Amino acid sequence: MDSEEHERDEEPEAPAEDRAPPSPEMVPFAPPEATLAAPEPTPSTHSRLADAALVMLLVIGYVSPTVAALVALATGARGLAFICFGIAAVGIGIWAVIRLYRRTRTHGRGAALAWADVLVLGILPAWGLLYNHIVNATCQVIECEASGEVFRPLAEPEVFGLLAFHLVTALAYVVSRRRRAALHPPMAELLVHAGMLAGMAIHVLLAVHFGKWVLIGVVFPPAFLPCLSPVLTVILYGAELRHRLRLRGADARAIGKPLAVYREGPEQTFLPERIHHPTLLRALALSPVVLGVHAVLQAVWLGHAAGALQVFTRTCDYTLSRLPVELLPGDCHYLCTVAARGHSWLVRPLRMGRRGGVPIVVNRQLAVANAFEDLLHERWPRFGRLARRTYDLLARPVCNYLRPAWVSDVVYLFMKPAEWVFYLVLVLLDPRSPETRIDRMYR
Q1: CA 78 to CA 258: how far, in whole Å?
Q2: How many other C-beta atoms are found inside a 10 Å radius of the C-beta of residue 414?
Q3: What is the reported pTM?
């Protein structure tokens, strides 16, 4: 009896495949998160480039105003001090980019995107308004400074109405970022979409109006980043609008679906998110109304039916400008003229001369250069006019900003080889005495 019980106790277990399946009540509950878990994806090249671009924007955007102010203070410093300052600024900028990029890759883009919103929607417009206010408010410019003059891109006070409209569209963007769920009543949700669409339309118009300055903002962002503000705003609004339309599309597809039983496994295939086209069409129909309300309010404020357009048209030298540029005669500076204003022990002024009725300092280098140009106009007038136009386009705008005496010394030394070439041409090609031609310059 005992041996039989002992044999029954030591009877081996049946193989796993022969066992009966457990009842449903015995299956332990597994949360959906566990079934959906997947290995951490490897960061793609696109993700890395997007993070790098975001970090570059933040560093340039937040550091550039400080750097610009310090550069303005350092313009009166010695050349060596200015160069050292520039090298230090570049080094600090590179260090900040690397540090912020590593932090973004580790902690995600959340904080970086929030700072980008503040930069693009707040700081850059304010910085651009400052530029808009301090540049040439008229369409009059001295003839020799015309090629390098910057005119006011947006008319004042019309620009303040445009600023108010920008703040309204920025409010729609902020509401969309803060409240992902659909707003109630439905008209509030529709106004958020229409507000971002209207903001995109206005900023596309601004980018077209700025024209070449948008490209300059890409090439040299530290000083001209506000010129990129319309493009960056369109990117922000467009990405947020697309994301919100996808959320509304997901809400629409979820309506009418039965609730899943907790034991039901997750879907194995995922359809790509799609935007909600009815909401997009309604927003497209409402956005012209939003723009029309802005135009009416602007017209009532300014007392002119086209008040909303005057912010673009009442300017000069831009894409949508309608005012002509007026050229005024004035004292024009050239490289050799600048060089002659250096320290007397180096540039060795000879006498005072007159150009356009204005007294100027004349030294040997200036007289030789002008005699060479005089020879060109005399013997090869077409080539002389071409050389003059090319010089006026490339070099003359720079000359008007070369003020310190030490800069004139540098220009004098830089132009010395050209002076020797000019004199050699005069000796070889002038049919008369070169010294006679040189001596009568600026008399």
Answers
A1: 76
A2: 11
A3: 0.61
Tokens (6 digits) for 154: 């947006």
Residue 86 CA to residue 4 CA, distance in Å, equals 96
Q: Taking phi first (over 0 means left), then psi (-120 to 50 degrees means alpha), and beta for anything else, what does residue 184 get?
A: beta
Residue 136 DSSP symbol = B
Every domain of the chain and the residues it spans: 46-108, 110-252+276-330, 335-439
Cβ-contact 196, 237 below 8 angstroms: yes
The CA–CA distances, whole Å, from 37 to 30, 112, 265, 266 equal 12, 27, 13, 11
Sign of dihedral through CA atoms 364, 365, 370, 371?
Answer: positive
Both tokens assigned to 166 = 């920008």
Helix (H, G, I), strand (E, B) or coil at 163: helix
Q: Where are the beta strands (DSSP E) in 238-391?
A: 326-328, 349-355, 358-363
Residue whose tokens read 């040997």: 364
Q: What is the pLDDT of residue 162?
A: 94
* Eight-state DSSP code of residue 12: P
Q: 10 Å Cβ neighbour count for 161? A: 20
Confirm if 368 and 353 have CB atoms less than 8 A apart: no
Radius of gyration of the chain (CA): 35
Q: What angle do CA 117, 51, 228 make, to 5 degrees?
A: 50
pLDDT (average), residues 41-50: 58
Banded pLDDT at 218 (limits 50, 70, 90): confident
Residue with tokens 């697309």: 242
The residue among 330, 388, 331 whose CA lies nearest residue 360 is 331
Q: Are 363 and 376 in contact (CB under 8 A)?
A: no
Task: Report phi then psi at 56, rounded to 5.
Answer: -60, -40
Cβ atoms < 10 Å from Cβ of 53: 10
Query: The tokens 């958020």 sit on which residue?
Result: 192
Q: C-alpha distances in angstroms, 212 versus 207, 217, 426?
A: 9, 9, 41
Q: Give the three-state DSSP class for 326.
A: strand
Percentage with pLDDT > 90 across the chain: 27
Q: Which contiguous run of DSSP H or E holds residue 338?
A: helix 335-339
Helix pair 229-254, 277-302: axis angle to 10 deg: 140
